[in-house]
Amino acid sequence: MGIMKEEGYPFAFDPKACESCEGECCRGESGYIWVKYPEIVAISQYIDIELENFAKIYLKKVGHRYSLVEKQIAQDDYACIFFDTTKMRCSIYPVRPLQCRTFPFWQQFKNSKDEVKKECPGII
Question: How confident is the model at residue 56 (pLDDT cuts 50, 70, 90)?
Answer without folding.
Answer: very high
